[in-house]
């Protein structure tokens, strides 16, 4: 596309490059100096709790919000200076939220294609292809007013793919979806990448980042606090987690003391009283903790060993949980 070729290029080896990206709302720095390097063909995950600045960062990169300070490039094209070029390079979900509810899924996709300047027969065949690819064939001719949340999400993603953009932003693509629909979404995202796309997705779920992302940046209060492969992040918190529910919630501090003595580290206290999670380097250390708790006379209602949660990754990386208001700090 000539318009893209004409744009001045910086580092064309990267799909996304940001340096010191900042967005301020009043006094609040929602995005506070973020540096990113995203390679073409990878799935890059941005992991962070509510209010971390994930959506704000994506909106700046998609030219939907002004960049207050710092710099961003998409395939070497400066975002602030070339918004019209960036909009051709990037597909953003959520952008099409105001689709016409009375039209069918097929009609909506066709209409988006037409609005992007695609000829009618071609728009029709792209719509049919996307409906098949997203498992929406059966519902294709129903008005989207009758669609479930998961179907809407898939239609939204399908709409953002009509022009086959090389870079796709997915803002929490599976939040609120049931497990089966989540799995379908993950498959779709993998398919996009196999087809040559680069994907930048935000999520609140470690398991999602783990399943999908090649690399992950962890964001907290507008800042990047860690970056690495999902495995590298998990190693920071141990390979597994012992989840305990105490019979008597008042024994939390006694139980914490036992954990500290056995493992030399503190457990993560859940906002739910009497529940605590213990990061373990090896799953078999769980037995040592349980024996020590019984010796100390601390009774337990339930026990399980699981993979670390996002909460624990956060606690390990930032010293606080994903929910700042949780009782984690004062319970210690
Ligand atoms: N238009 C706005 N005006 C004022 N403050 C805003 C605006 N948009 C976002 N914020 C604030 O910026 C911070 C980051 O918000 P953002 O939506 O980027 O977080 P997020 O990481 O996407 O969270 P979530 O997981 O809940 O979607 C929050 O404190 C939010 O209240
Ligand atoms: Mg958000």
From TrEMBL:
Short name of any one Pfam family annotated for the protein: ABC_tran
Entry keyword Iron: no
PROSITE patterns: ABC_TRANSPORTER_1, ABC_TRANSPORTER_2
Membrane topology: Peripheral membrane protein
Locations listed in the record: Cell membrane
GO cellular component: a single term: plasma membrane
Presence of the UniProt keyword Calcium in the record: no
Keyword list, A-Z: Antibiotic resistance, ATP-binding, Cell membrane, Membrane, Nucleotide-binding, Translocase, Transport
SUPFAM superfamilies: P-loop containing nucleoside triphosphate hydrolases (SSF52540)
An MF annotation (GO) of this entry: ATP hydrolysis activity
Main subcellular location of this protein, as a coarse class: membrane
GO BP, sorted A to Z: daunorubicin transport; doxorubicin transport; response to antibiotic
Superkingdom classification of source: Bacteria
Domain ABC transporter: 16-246
Protein family membership: Belongs to the ABC transporter superfamily. Drug exporter-1 (DrugE1) (TC 3.A.1.105) family.
Protein name listed in UniProt: ABC-2 type transport system ATP-binding protein
Species of the source: Nonomuraea maritima
């Amino acid at each position: 596309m000539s318009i893209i070729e004409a744009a001045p290029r910086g580092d064309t080896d990267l799909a996304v490059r940001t340096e010191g990206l900042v967005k301020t709302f009043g006094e609040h720095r929602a995005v506070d100096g973020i540096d990113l390097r995203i390679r073409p063909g990878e799935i890059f995950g941005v992991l962070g709790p509510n209010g971390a600045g994930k959506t704000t960062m994506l909106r700046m990169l998609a030219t939907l919000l002004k960049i207050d300070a710092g710099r961003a490039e998409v395939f070497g094209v400066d975002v602030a200076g070339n918004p019209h070029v960036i909009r051709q390079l990037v597909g953003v979900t959520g952008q099409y939220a105001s689709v016409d509810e009375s039209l069918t899924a097929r009609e909506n996709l066709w209409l988006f294609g037409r609005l992007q300047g695609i000829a009618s027969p071609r728009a029709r065949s792209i719509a049919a292809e996307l409906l098949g690819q997203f498992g929406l064939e059966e519902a294709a001719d129903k008005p989207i007013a009758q669609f479930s949340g998961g179907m809407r999400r898939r239609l939204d993603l399908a709409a953002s793919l009509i022009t086959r953009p090389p870079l796709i932003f997915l803002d929490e693509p599976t939040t609120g979806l049931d497990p089966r629909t989540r799995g379908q979404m993950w498959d779709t995202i993998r398919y996009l990448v196999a087809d040559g796309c680069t994907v930048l997705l935000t999520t609140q779920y470690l398991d999602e980042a783990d399943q999908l992302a090649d690399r992950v940046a962890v964001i907290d209060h507008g800042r990047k606090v860690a970056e690495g492969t999902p495995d590298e992040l998990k190693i920071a918190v141990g390979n597994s987690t012992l989840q305990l529910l105490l019979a008597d919630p008042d024994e939390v501090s006694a139980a914490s003391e036992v954990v500290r003595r056995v493992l030399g580290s503190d457990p993560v206290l859940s906002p739910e009283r009497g529940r605590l999670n213990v990061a373990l380097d090896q799953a078999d250390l769980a037995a040592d903790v349980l024996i020590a708790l019984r010796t100390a006379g601390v009774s337990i209602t339930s026990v399980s060993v699981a993979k670390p949660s996002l909460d624990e990754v956060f606690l390990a990386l930032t010293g606080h949980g994903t929910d700042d208001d949780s009782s984690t700090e004062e319970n210690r």
